Amino acid sequence: MKKGDHLFLIDGSGFIFRAFHALPPLTRKTDGLPIGAVSGFCNMLWKLLRDARNTDVGVTPTHLAVIFDYSAKTFRKDLYDAYKANRSAPPEELIPQFGLIREATRAFNLPCIETEGFEADDIIATYARQAEAAGADVTIVSSDKDLMQLVSPNVHMYDSMKDKQIGIPDVIEKWGVPPEKMIDLQAMTGDSVDNVPGIPGIGPKTAAQLLEEYGDLDTLLERATEIKQVKRRETILANIDMAKLSRDLVRLRTDVPLDLDLDALVLEPQNGPKLIGFLKTMEFTTLTRRVGEACDCDASAIEPAVVHIEWGEAAHGPDLSAAEPEPVAGGIPEVSGESVPVPPRAKAKAAVEGAFSPADLAKARAEAFATLPFDHTAYVTIRDLATLDRWIADARATGLVAFDTETTSLDAMQAELVGFSMAIADNTADPTGTKIRAAYVPLVHKNGVGDLLGGGLAENQIPMRDALPRLKALLEDESVLKVAQNLKYDYLLMKRYGIETRSFDDTMLISYVLDAGTGAHGMDPLSEKFLGHTPIPYKDVAGSGKANVTFDLVAIDRATHYAAEDADVTLRLWLVLKPRLAAAGLTSVYERLERPLLPVLARMEARGITVDRQILSRLSGELAQGAARLEDEIYVLAGERFNIGSPKQLGDILFGKMGLAGGSKTKTGQWSTSAQVLEDLAAAGFELPRKIVDWRQLTKLKSTYTDALPGYVHPETKRVHTSYSLASTTTGRLSSSEPNLQNIPVRTAEGRKIRTAFISTPGHKLISADYSQIELRVLAHVAEIPQLTKAFEDGVDIHAMTASEMFGVPVEGMPGEVRRRAKAINFGIIYGISAFGLANQLSIERSEAGDYIKKYFERFPGIRDYMESRKAMARDKGYVETIFGRRINYPEIRSSNPSVRAFNERAAINAPIQGSAADVIRRAMIRMEPALAEVGLGDRVRMLLQVHDELIFEVEDDDVEKAMPVIVSVMENATMPALEMRVPLRVDARAATNWDEAH
DNA sequence: CCCCAACCGTA
DNA sequence: GTACGGTTGGGGG
């Protein structure tokens, strides 16, 4: 770049927001995709590139780049945690446009620039200064005041909306100071939109006046005592640090590392057909014609392009991670008494951003759909490619489609695709006028068994080989938001067909974030709750029991009713639920803890883990032998044969026939034969109960593990693939089923043998990494307990420390029983302790347990305060929160039934602790794959399992040493940078060829 | 065939 | 005392 060149730097992210507000609110394509900002952007670019002399800017660029924000995790966030903390989420209409604008930039053959850790403004500043140094002129296309500090004799700004240049005199006119003093001015005035604090009470006028008088901020701060106005002097003196911090925040960096140097920004010739293809897709007819004329192309001969958008911040807008306030260090606001204030300006802005605030929209949608009837006769069966292509084009046009698969199995790892359904919404801008249409695409339905043709492929179905590429294009298209219910299933299924779903929402997960604790999140209950509609039960379509058939045997017209309805319901649920996220301030929980975990879990499930069937088989034999021997002995002692596995029969034998004392009864009046009861009897010297306990252990291990696990080995992968549920616990934990790999035995030596059957493939190791005492650490953090915090910092035995505090016993030479009691109390605290429960656990009198609790609270009064505050919050608000803002609702906390109420209170005490720990490991899991990829281990370290506080990986032998520190570091730093805990997290990791030895 | 209670494995 | 899922027995339809 040289003198005479002219570099244009376009603030792409800023443009979208400005265009959105400047243009009519709902500029849309014929089918509803909002493209107002994209349209404005393309027109502006075209003008700049072709007709620059017709605009006030008056020059034609030689170099040009469009700059975007990459993410909110910029260095400013490190300087000031609350930076941009009160940004509200961008309006729905804006979201698809972020990606489209990048696509438009590429269609114009222009470079898209973004750099991790920096805002667009910093990149612009760096380029501007470099170009200036090279003697070139610069025009920054933006009207953002944050960029005005860059204006100089050679650097101008250009407000494309007002078609107006901004030079040094314009800055002085508007702000009262020259550009080089803008930094100091902004440092004083602050910025409520970006949450830059500034000095309270100092606005632009006062700031300009002060700068006029003192020259610059440093001088002002040094001589602040000279200020005559008492109040102003006091505020400035009190906010010196804030002013300096604010200056660091508003000062743009000019040293951003750049991938492309200035010369790479030189304007390339336009690719007419490529640009026209894009413009046609966007339905910009006027611009299409102009471009066609200018490049001498026959626009009518060019097909609309398949628009493909880069994933990343793009599809959901820049800075979305800053859309929700990151919790400040200090955790649960109600505990610390801190909360992030929402400045009035931000509120006012939100109110005018669209016809509806999120809350209004949520309310309007809820009312519109609460009773809207379902018309099954309107559902379409798509049987030819032309119709399918039309529907897919409609989905692209509206940027939104509900999607559901129909398959042969509930197991996504085994299921075969039979067909799929779609639902499309027209006119979503009008909540009461939104129209939904739905269709089913049968692919491999067979003629019914009773049919004359008998089991052959039914006629008039689109061949799989034609449908899949189209489905792939749609599902992988990041400019189309796919909405599904329980998407992990469909995601995994489609992944097995080589399709990776991108840009998605899951109504189940949205409901889970909004309403955890208030009921199930399956489609049927949600449909009942929000749509007043009972969907066709699956068994009505596919039969049940013996008459049960796979979906490919269901007649296509019946299948259409069922499948299209599912897509219809899903889309309606999304319309109702999605705006509630923003209204409730839960968008970031959904977008940072929930949605990104879905593909991570899908990959874990797809990987599976190897279990050694030989080991299990041998163990099963041993267990059978042991159980058989015990059975013989039990029958002798009982004097008769009976079903030992029947608690009822066993109770009759023990407490009836043999007349043993000390039995308690269950709530149905049966004799209890629980392990606790049997252990007590055994301790009293009876032989039979001991043998029953042993027999139970052996048969439990055999039936639940050694015999069941081999049945879960996948016929093709030869591995076991569990299924994780993201939305079945109230607290945010995952659950695992079919098989449940979160309850593999570990506590007894016999049980641990099961773990030896979980093995690594040859040449590999399993790495198990688990958080040490994570829940107690979370407790120490949220309740701010100094002794606990210190103990964790010093790495001392936490239970021994507790015992020492409580009983005054030194840790050295502490009797095991004393420590055991303290440990039980610590766990009891986490569970919302009661004297009754602690007494049970320790087999002591309730009064004694009560004394322990009293003593504990005397030593740790902060814990009692914490517990009381959780109960109060649950009572007042109906919910409690984790450290990352996840909500857990307790609708029954005010029950008049004291035991129901007490139960809810204990749960409300436990949930923030258990749930925060769950959030922490979720963050670690989400970050794990990118972190491993960064050190070149992306495809060499495979995360397989999660067991609440433990992650299990499979790693090639040679990579173990390299992988372990990365895994440990990601887990230990999982709360950062969002939140720094008062207590360090510690992770232990080991590698071995089987899970038992690795753990 | 479905559902519930009891029991027990995990964190 | 919190949070889960799986197996078994047993009752009811």
Automatic annotation (TrEMBL):
<dbReference type="InterPro" id="IPR008918">
    <property type="entry name" value="HhH2"/>
</dbReference>
<dbReference type="InterPro" id="IPR002421">
    <property type="entry name" value="5-3_exonuclease"/>
</dbReference>
<keyword id="KW-0808">Transferase</keyword>
<dbReference type="InterPro" id="IPR020045">
    <property type="entry name" value="DNA_polI_H3TH"/>
</dbReference>
<dbReference type="InterPro" id="IPR013520">
    <property type="entry name" value="Ribonucl_H"/>
</dbReference>
<keyword id="KW-0540">Nuclease</keyword>
<dbReference type="InterPro" id="IPR043502">
    <property type="entry name" value="DNA/RNA_pol_sf"/>
</dbReference>
<keyword id="KW-0227">DNA damage</keyword>
<dbReference type="InterPro" id="IPR036397">
    <property type="entry name" value="RNaseH_sf"/>
</dbReference>
<dbReference type="InterPro" id="IPR012337">
    <property type="entry name" value="RNaseH-like_sf"/>
</dbReference>
<dbReference type="InterPro" id="IPR018320">
    <property type="entry name" value="DNA_polymerase_1"/>
</dbReference>
<dbReference type="Pfam" id="PF00476">
    <property type="entry name" value="DNA_pol_A"/>
</dbReference>
<comment type="subunit">
    <text>Single-chain monomer with multiple functions.</text>
</comment>
<keyword id="KW-0239">DNA-directed DNA polymerase</keyword>
<keyword id="KW-0235">DNA replication</keyword>
<dbReference type="InterPro" id="IPR002298">
    <property type="entry name" value="DNA_polymerase_A"/>
</dbReference>
<dbReference type="InterPro" id="IPR019760">
    <property type="entry name" value="DNA-dir_DNA_pol_A_CS"/>
</dbReference>
<keyword id="KW-0378">Hydrolase</keyword>
<dbReference type="InterPro" id="IPR020046">
    <property type="entry name" value="5-3_exonucl_a-hlix_arch_N"/>
</dbReference>
<feature type="domain" description="Exonuclease">
    <location>
        <begin position="399"/>
        <end position="583"/>
    </location>
</feature>
<keyword id="KW-0548">Nucleotidyltransferase</keyword>
<protein>
    <recommendedName>
        <fullName>DNA polymerase I</fullName>
        <ecNumber>2.7.7.7</ecNumber>
    </recommendedName>
</protein>
<comment type="similarity">
    <text>Belongs to the DNA polymerase type-A family.</text>
</comment>
<dbReference type="Pfam" id="PF02739">
    <property type="entry name" value="5_3_exonuc_N"/>
</dbReference>
<dbReference type="InterPro" id="IPR002562">
    <property type="entry name" value="3'-5'_exonuclease_dom"/>
</dbReference>
<feature type="domain" description="3'-5' exonuclease">
    <location>
        <begin position="379"/>
        <end position="582"/>
    </location>
</feature>
<feature type="domain" description="DNA-directed DNA polymerase family A palm">
    <location>
        <begin position="751"/>
        <end position="959"/>
    </location>
</feature>
<feature type="domain" description="5'-3' exonuclease">
    <location>
        <begin position="5"/>
        <end position="268"/>
    </location>
</feature>
<keyword id="KW-0234">DNA repair</keyword>
<dbReference type="Pfam" id="PF01367">
    <property type="entry name" value="5_3_exonuc"/>
</dbReference>
<keyword id="KW-0269">Exonuclease</keyword>
<dbReference type="InterPro" id="IPR001098">
    <property type="entry name" value="DNA-dir_DNA_pol_A_palm_dom"/>
</dbReference>
<dbReference type="InterPro" id="IPR029060">
    <property type="entry name" value="PIN-like_dom_sf"/>
</dbReference>
<dbReference type="Pfam" id="PF01612">
    <property type="entry name" value="DNA_pol_A_exo1"/>
</dbReference>
<comment type="function">
    <text>In addition to polymerase activity, this DNA polymerase exhibits 3'-5' and 5'-3' exonuclease activity.</text>
</comment>
<dbReference type="InterPro" id="IPR036279">
    <property type="entry name" value="5-3_exonuclease_C_sf"/>
</dbReference>
<keyword id="KW-0238">DNA-binding</keyword>
